[in-house]
Amino acid sequence: MPDSTAVPVYPLVAAVLGTLAILVWRLRETRRPVTTRSIVIPPLGMSTGFSMFVVPGFRVPWSWALAAFALGAVVLAYPLLASSRLTREGGVIMMRRSRTFIAVILGLAALRLALRGYVGEVLSVEQTAGLLFVLAFGMIVRWRAWMLLEYRRLIRA
């Protein structure tokens, strides 16, 4: 009989690899100048994930989706906003690397894993994935919208 308290290994490994990929990508991103395209493309690319809701198993009530988006945009985006700075260096805009950024990403990943464990007891795996996707999308949209506004302000200056 399988142990119901055991941590599923494959999802945990996937979450760790995903977190490492995000860290590497974000650290590399600070080496290149920021452009409107580099700010806008990630949330546009991520938005294709909403296609998961075509499958009935992923669907959740609209109120839950709106609450997850709001939680991501209002609460969980704050650490990203606080640890990100755009600066003008010569004729280009650069993302300044924050000492706390790695801690923020690791903290958000740990929170996501904890939420997945808690919410996963109440909802199906698919619904949990859908809600966490909407939450992450809320974070990214607010963070990137702030970056775009800051980028435009620095371009005009």
Instruction: Return Rg in Å.
Output: 17 Å
Number of structural domains = 1
Q: State the order of secondary-structure elements, H for helix, E for strand.
A: HHHEEHH
- Strand order of the biggest β-sheet: 1-2
End-to-end separation in angstroms reads 66 Å
Helix content: 55-70%
Unreliable stretches (pLDDT < 50, length at least 5) are none
The backbone outline, from C-alpha atoms, is: globular
Q: What's the tally of helices?
A: 5
Summarize the structure.
Helices cover 67% and strands 6% of the residues. The protein has 157 residues and is mainly α.
Notes on the structure:
This protein has 157 residues and is mainly alpha-helical. It has one domain. Helix content is 67%, strand content 6%. It contains 5 helices and 2 strands; from the N terminus they run αααββαα. The chain is globular, with a radius of gyration of 17 Å.
Element layout with pairings:
Layout: H1 9-29, H2 36-47, H3 62-82, E1 85-89, E2 92-96, H4 101-119, H5 125-156
Search tags:
mainly alpha, two-stranded antiparallel sheet, 157 residues, single chain, 6% strand
